[in-house]
Every structure is written in structure tokens, then in C-alpha cells.
Task: structure prediction
Amino acid sequence: MKKWFIISTILLTGQIYAAPLSAEELTRGKWVCRADYPNMHITTLDLYEYHADGSSKSTGSLVIDILDTLFTYRIETTGRWTLKDDVLTEVVHKEVTRKYSDKALTLIDINSAVADLENSFYDILSKNADTDAGNTISLKIKKIDDDTFAVQQLNTDGSELDMEGKCWRPEEVLAK
Result:
């Protein structure tokens, strides 16, 4: 009777939490991660690989919505990672490439303010791309299950950015 009471209490309160994500779990294959930054109208989608030797690499895209037009950037990174408690920290070197649609190119051509904004954004993305300066990313992670975890990006002072992210195993990894 007591066992059923405890189980029903846990189910009713929704307090079932998975154990923290371990470095071994992180390095067991690839991860697809999506992050949304609603206040900046930015979405990222990346494929990450974390290796046991502390190295990492990723390939993905960052999309920003400017005047209902999507500006897309391909971002490839290599770096080093550490996992302490529930914070994943990476220092990355990156390569940023513009990947614009015809609509985005037309908007840049006809609107100098958009062109200036896009150039500023690209400069921010590619600044110090091949150095450690300004390329440290800290993510608070919460394991959901063996194949999924949630992420929350942290500012340099440890506060949380307005961002929601989730990582999961790609289907080809799950099928094996």
C-alpha cells in the first residue's frame, strides 16, 4: 500500500527526473540540437559530435528572421569541451558562410538598412572565428532520457539567456 502511495504521488506531482547526463553518454555518438532565441528571432540546428578526448565538432545552420525574410548562415566548428556537474562548456573555432535565398539577396540589394544590419550580424558571428577569444559557450543541460537532453545557454556571468534548446540522437544512430 505504501509503495503505491509513493508511486502515485510521484506521478501526480511530475517529479520524475533522469540522472545527470554523463560524459560517457555525451560521447556515445552524435547529437542533433535545436535552439530558439525568441527575442532575437534566431533558430539554430546543428549536428554535434563530442569525443572522449575532449574534442568536438559540429555542422549546422543559424537562421535569423529580418523583415519576414530568412537569412541563413552555415556554421562549422571544432573545439574542446568539458562537462562539470550539469554545465557543458565548449571553446570553439568556427567557419561561418552566408547561405542566402534569392528573397534575402533582393532585400539586401534594395534596403541599405537591412544590408547594414546583416553585415553587422555576420561580423558578430565570424568575429575571432579562429581564436579562443569570445568563442566560449556554456550550456546548462538536463537529461530527459538516454537519447534526449534540454539545454539552456548561459551568459558569461552564469545567468540564463532567453533561449530554449533540445538535443536528441539522430535517427540513423537510434536505428543501430
Observations:
- Residues 112-126 form the longest helix (15 residues).
- The CA atoms of residues 50 and 56 lie 5 Å apart.
- The radius of gyration is 19 Å.
